[in-house]
Amino acid sequence: MDASFEYVFPSIRGVQAGREYYVSMCPLRLIPKVFLFDEEELLPEVRAQRIMNHARIPEITRYLLENRDDYVFSALTASIDGSVRFRALGEEGEANRVGALHVDMESRFIINDGQHRRKAIEEALRQDPSLGGETIAVVFFLDRNLERCQQMFADLNRYAVRPSRSLGLLYDHRNNMAQVAKLVAMKSETFKDVVELEKTTLSPRSRKLFTLSAIYSASCALLGTENADSIEEAGATCCEYWAEIGNHLPEWQFVRQSKMTAGEVRRDFVHSHSIVLQALGVVGRRLLEVEKDKAWKKRLQSLGELDWSRTNSRLWEGRAMTGGRMQKASHNITLTANLLKQTVGLELTLEEQRAEDAFMRGEHAS
Predict the structure, then answer these.
(1) What is the DSSP secondary structure assignment for residue 210, as one 8-state letter?
(2) Helices and strands in the chain: count of H runs, count of E runs
(3) What does the pLDDT look like over 324-356, one tens digit per residue?
(4) Of 75, 196, 274, 351, which residue has the fewest beta carbons closer than 10 angstroms?
(5) Using alpha carbons only, what angle is made at residue 228 by residues 223 and 233, rounded to the nearest 5 degrees?
(6) Is 84 in the same domain as 176?
């Protein structure tokens, strides 16, 4: 190897499965220039990566640029196809693990994990070159062949599991509406102690009646936004509205009073499911727009007269349910909200009326 034409990465040397690998901190400005990803034109069987989803790039780029003081990027993983040598600081102990990784400039660096982060870094540097001095961890493996790279990709992603939407919202301190949803779930007398904060689905034996993700979607529908300006004001509005809704749905109260189990209510009634909760949010948004001085509360009294039982297929089939099963599609939310709007005496918008007309003609079945 010609030492005049090589990359030198300060690195720590480790061993996995009997093979050496190296961890280094690389300046962001180096990432787009050095690290490659497979050409998208290649067939899947001769690539070592998935095709890049370009729709993800703007979101990641925006995250990086808008959170300069507290963004977090996990390490990239790359294979080196070429000549390398590791020069340790010493021959014994820890000094033998720390040193410099010398890589021939003719070598290729192929991203095994992190291609979207790499592309987002490239886009962010174009908009803000000052990012170039910051660093990201890179784990280097020595490339054996295409088969080895493909196996690495499969292994790196084998046990990767996205956190549930509820857990993501619980830990999200940047999204104001996530903060509002948490405030409502924890402080509202309607939802306090009956909201599952981690899981997005509830088992039949769960003691919780709602999920945090359902509270989030319903509150966004109520406020008509996913970006509340004031967490306190938005939270107060949501708590007041959902408290009034709870006054007309006795089964919600029965769960808190231990007169019914959450599983029984979810099994027998539609109003504890996320689609109906979101539809109630849609109704609430319109009520708050047309009614002033709390007059909207009187409108909600008629909700207590509805038969919310899932056995009432005449009312809910084709709207909140299909074949007796709860549905979450957007048209189901619209049709459920239509029914609730008509119940509280609200007019439908032109778009909602078109959906209602199609439903009445039986086109919903298609």
Answers:
(1) E
(2) 15, 12
(3) 899 889 999 999 999 999 999 999 999 999 999
(4) 351
(5) 80
(6) no
